[in-house]
Amino acid sequence: MIGALGQEVVWGVSRLGDFSRFVAASLLGAFRTRRLMRRWGRAIYEQGVLCLPVVVIVGLFTGLVLGLQGYHVLSRFGSEGLLGSLVSLSLVREMAPVLAALMLVGQAGSALAAELGTQRNSEQIVALQTMGIDTHGFLVTPRLLAALVVFPLQTALFALIGLVGGSLSGSWLLGLDSGVYWSAVERSLEPGDMRECFSKAAAFGVLTMAICAYQGYHADRCRTATGAQAVSRSTTLAVVYSSVVVLAVDYAITSFFV
Amino acid sequence: MKPLLDVRDLSKAFGSQQIFSGVSLSVPRGQIFTILGPSGAGKSVFLKCVAGVLMADGGEIRFDGRVLGRDRTALADFRRRCSFLFQSNALFDSLTALENVALPLEQTTHSSRRETRVRAMEALGQLDIGGFADRYPAQLSGGMQKRLALARAIVTRPEMVFFDEPTAGLDPLRRNKVFAMIARYQHRIGFTAMIVTHDVPEALVTSDHVALLENGRLCFSGTPVEFSASADPLVTAFRDSADALGRALREIRVSDP
Fold first, then answer.
1. What are chain B's domains?
2. Does residue B109 carry a pLDDT above 80?
């Protein structure tokens, strides 16, 4: 049993090293691939435009729930006027980067892992190698660069919609003066909060897209399945690992900023 | 004459399973060299090792006199001068026929957008699928997909093209067409071809040189005429497999009327 555990640890460490090499090769790919902008544009469309509905919907409901819960909790202490502060700080510092990242992983990340896994299965990745094309630069780099831009933008949108949702439930449904709400929002948010929010979003973006790309790219290395099943397992693992990493890195970055 | 491709004592194993070992052969420039063998003989793995898709465990591969190994420059030069046609075609389903063919030019040469398009259209035209440039691979028939894959393989004007089971899953009529197509374009463009297949009659007609890989060993190498005349038991067993089937069926009918 100890031997098996040791083998798993060694395997895990070697995968971690392999993942680091994969990310490094993908970042270096920016200098080795041609006509990157067109593929970067497509990646922005996939992560940005296609994921807009889910980000807007989840952002709205998160804000609505925060407004509702926050109002009832704060009213116990006669501090309903602080609803704007509660919603804005919760959203900007924690919920928007984390939830937006999880939504993007669920949609764009899983699609990326499945696409690369299918390309691996149908020998398209090997075909690129035989053509002398840098596969990391061609397939992964545009996605990582897009994530660096799209995740912060989607997070900002999520926070903005969430604030509107908080205002809707606080002012429109529960009768709090909207001026009180928005002035509390304005007073509470500081540049440091924005820095924390966007740092998290950018870090989540690069890390999760790299994990999803890695899982899909190496779908053939799946130890428990082959073919279509391997693609399915890789996609599942990509979403699970990315979600765990979002929460773990969130803790690490929060402890750095707090 | 110096061979374009020279393979010496190549071997490959997956774990404890030896796929092939001690395989040596030379491919002269401008010829069609076919490797025959039954399914599971290790032909495709051999081709992938030679083409640099898989890493061989031992042996040496020389392309135009340069040893291919861990030397990245030699490998990059080799990939620039060679193409690989996959059994599954490995076409990019999210790209149109034109984009598929233009891809290697776009990514590996400094040609302008206009020049890339002209050359890609020229390659599609050579394979008689110029009218389908805007179609996606899924919208093309099996034969057209094969031609599209060949167009992508020749668009960079390679010196050598590797064909991995180019007729797998095709009916006899299409099989003949694919071999005729390879022979026609090889003659027209002048590349050196290495084909892996188990279609004996078609291979004997189109090839300049054939080799037989059986149980991971090269048991014959020579011209198609020599192959047809060979008395080697492994060669005769493979070559006359259709006759053997006829004999076996006759015996069944006699013993069980």
1. 5-219 (3.40.50.300)
2. yes
